[in-house]
Amino acid sequence: MNIYDYIDEFGVYSFEEQEINEVDSAIFAFLSYANFNNIFDFPKMTINEIGRKHLGIHSKQEVNVIAVRDGNNLLKYIKDTKRYKNCIVSNYKYEGNDDVQFGVIAIEYKKNEVYISFEGTNELLSGWKENFHLTYEFPTKSHQMAINYLNRNFTFSYKKLIIGGHSKGGNLALVAAMNANYFVKNRIMKIYNFDGPGLLENELNSKNFKSILHKYIQIIPDYSVVGLLLENENTIVVKANNKTAFSHNIYYWQVDKTQFVRSKLSVSSKALKKDIDAWMNKYSEQEKIAFIDNLENICQKTQVKSLLEFKSKKTKILDFIYESKELSENSKKILMDFIIIFLKSLNNITKEEIKQFINKKIKLPKILKKEKLD
Question: Whose CA is closest to 240, among 285, 194, 296?
């Protein structure tokens, strides 16, 4: 069964009757993707109240990236269940601009027990750019915001905490928990990173990470891509119905009662991990910074701030591609290497098939087509 089947079966039990488990944790982690703009009339609202208000504002299927749409759908699905409807949501914070994309909610699922859910990457390009920053920068702006959020809101609280998130949100949960002050860290029961990136090697070996390692769990699907980025420990591999990079979505993860079905990392994901590590090690920090600067310049020239603009304004795609000819030679190589890895993650296709796809299906400028793919 999947998470919706789980909700159908276990949604009839309160958290007092059936303790929180890893499937609930994944649901709460994904819930922070939902669009909460203009929803909170009060600092604290139940999931039922938020869900009903959300239906009134966002009654139609929204045009957005998959994660946000699925977060909205998940909210609507759980809003009337006994298990979730009376959970109290508070401390909502969202900031999205050219520099940062950060979202978080606190969910009190049981008296004095709170789940802190950090949002993963949504439609804003600033969030996607920050994923590249993870390959060389620590802490990022979102990292610092996540740490400050925990310390500011829960230092003087007596409530027990579970910290979690999906994708980039899982990475934020990990970093926030390991760098929280003593009073917060002492009340954290578990930390969940659902298919999110890990840490740079220095941070993995740090005292801060070691101090929370016994509470930390990374859960990834057997066809993981994002969860293979950087270094990690305490990783659990679970079975997904989808055999491509789209298994990143928890909807595809198989559930057995109150936990995900255990599995082993696929052969293709193991090979992809080697490609990702090679890509990470191939370029210096300075080259990666120059690459990000180049991309940011293109975004500024084309005035693109969101992936949704590519969908609603087709000319933006052409503008973006045209401006890509201004990339430095090294930045073009980094980009093409990344495209190859991304395409390989979509399916088990050969390098020759990837070359053909790029040359025939993607209308790249001639200057990019001439780049060597080997």
Answer: 194
Q: Distance between CA 328 and CA 337 in Å, rounded?
A: 14
Measured between alpha carbons, how far is 312 from 330 in angstroms, rounded to an integer?
31
Q: Tell me the pTM.
A: 0.84
- Show pLDDT as tens, one digit a residue, over the chain (374 residues): 999 999 999 999 999 999 999 999 999 999 999 999 889 989 999 999 999 999 888 766 565 567 788 899 999 999 999 999 999 999 999 998 877 889 999 999 999 999 999 999 865 555 567 877 788 889 999 999 999 999 999 999 999 999 999 999 999 999 999 999 999 999 999 999 999 999 999 999 999 999 999 999 999 999 998 899 899 999 999 999 988 778 989 999 999 999 999 999 999 889 888 888 887 888 888 887 777 776 666 666 655 454 444 444 445 444 555 556 666 777 777 777 776 776 666 654 445 544 554 454 333 334 334 333 33
Peptide bond into 139 cis (omega under 30): yes
Angle at 218 between CA 18 and CA 120, to 5 degrees: 90
| Contact yes or no for 107/89 (Cβ under 8 A) | yes
The rounded distance, in Å, linking the Cα atoms of 193 and 41 is 30
Q: Is the peptide bond before 221 cis (omega within 30 degrees of 0)?
A: no
Distance of alpha carbon 301 from alpha carbon 260, whole angstroms: 45
Paired tokens of 262: 């255990």
Give the CA count within 13 Å in the CB-facing half-sphere of 210.
Answer: 5
Which pair of structure tokens corresponds to residue 336?
Answer: 């093409």
Between strands 88-96 and 101-110, the pairing is antiparallel
Question: Tokens at residue 225, please?
Answer: 């891509």
Cβ atoms < 10 Å from Cβ of 357: 15
What structural domains and CATH numbers belong to the chain? 3-265 (3.40.50), 283-369 (no CATH)
Handedness of CA 305, 310, 314, 319 (dihedral sign): positive
Contacts of 164 (CB under 8 A, 6+ apart): 25, 26, 28, 29, 115, 116, 117, 118, 170, 173, 190, 191, 192, 193, 194
Residue type, 161: L
User: What amino acid is encoded at 167 in this protein?
Assistant: S
